[in-house]
Amino acid sequence: MTHKIAILGASGYTGAELVRLIATHPTMEIVALSADRKAGMDMADVYPHLRHLDLPKLVTMDEIDFATVDLAFAALPHGLSQALVRDLPDSVKVVDLGADFRLRDPAEYEKWYGAPHVATELQKTAVYGLTEFYREDIRTARLVAGTGCNAATVQYALRPLISAGLIDLDRIICDLKNGISGAGRSLKENMLFAERSTDVQGYAHGGKHRHLGEFDQEFSLLAGRPVQIMFTPHLVPVNRGILADCYVDGDADKIHAALIEQYQDEPFVTVLPKGQLPGMGHVMGSNQCHLGVVGDRVPGRALIVSALDNLCKGSSGQAMQNANLMLGEDETTGLMLPPVFP
């Protein structure tokens, strides 16, 4: 059976990554690509590395016949998916890569994104798209909300430890490094090569990063009480990848054992031998997440390091993993490509 796929927002990095992944998928066929500002163009003119693929022209969203679409990936800027998904036929399954449906509470959405939600009924039904923890709900979902890439990276490190009660919930510090592609493809002066190529810079300091809304929601739900971590992201001069250092109070041996138990049967999450730590370059271009644990010189303190590719496992790969489940396919289909190295 062939599944007809539309990618909304195909001219962005995550849209192009979806095209790259679907190109090797045996049962997905791209029937529509939207990009309002680049409508009428060939995808090859926007992304020459996709020139060898037979793809439909880019169109505006109102030109798409959604009656012919089985599943749509919404790779749109934050705020644009709500009304669009609300007005789609119920027959179209949706994986939203943006932030519009990640937070279940409309008040929390407005707090973190600065505007009221316009599709609150859909917001209540959306399934959070961290596949390894919401797999069964995703199988039967019509709408899945992809996680933030930073949020996914940290959650893979911490969720099993919070569930098992292995760490002090009031002493969690996460320091994260993110590749430049995490800022999107639109032109920004502070993203020029001359300004980023030899610099590392933190942003959204002091609890201002929007992904904190996801941490608050998910970690508090797991713990059964409020959990608010300290979190600072940094832009580093690499194209793609995320590396999160998570500092916790807890026994490193028990932490490592809990992570192994949680992920031993997961095809896309690997826990390294204790004392070994991952790097961005070990997962680049893949749907893999690598986790490492080391004990601190002070007993009872530990470091968990999580690495994934922000465009793949953190976004488009995760979206395709979820789509596979929604369409009744094997979860790994089209996603077992190894990382690119060097």
Structure description:
The mean pLDDT is 95. Helix 6 (131-139) packs parallel to helix 11. The chain is globular, with a radius of gyration of 19 Å. The protein has helices at residues 13-22, 43-46, 81-87, 106-113, 120-125, 131-139, 149-164, 193-196, 212-223, 252-263, 312-326; strands spanning 3-8, 28-34, 58-59, 71-74, 93-96, 127-128, 143-145, 173-178, 201-202, 230-235, 242-249, 269-271, 289-295, 301-308. The longest helix has 16 residues, at 149-164. With 342 residues, the chain is of the alpha/beta class.
Write a concise keyword list for the protein shown above:
342 residues; alpha/beta; 7-stranded mixed beta sheet; 11 helices; 30% helix
Give the mean pLDDT. Answer: 95
Oligomeric state of this protein: single chain
Number of helices: 11
What level of helicity do the residues show?
A: 25-40%
Instruction: Please tally the β strands and state the result.
Output: 14
Radius of gyration: 19 Å
* Strands in their spatial order, largest beta sheet: 3-2-1-4-5-7-6
Extract low-pLDDT stretches.
Answer: none
Please outline the major beta sheet.
Answer: 7 strands, parallel
Q: DSSP strand (E) fraction? A: 15-25%
Structural class: alpha/beta
Helix-strand pattern: EHEHEEHEHHEHEHEHEHEEHEEEH
Alpha-carbon distance between the two ends: 37 Å
Question: Which of globular, elongated, flat, extended, rod-shaped describes the shape?
Answer: globular
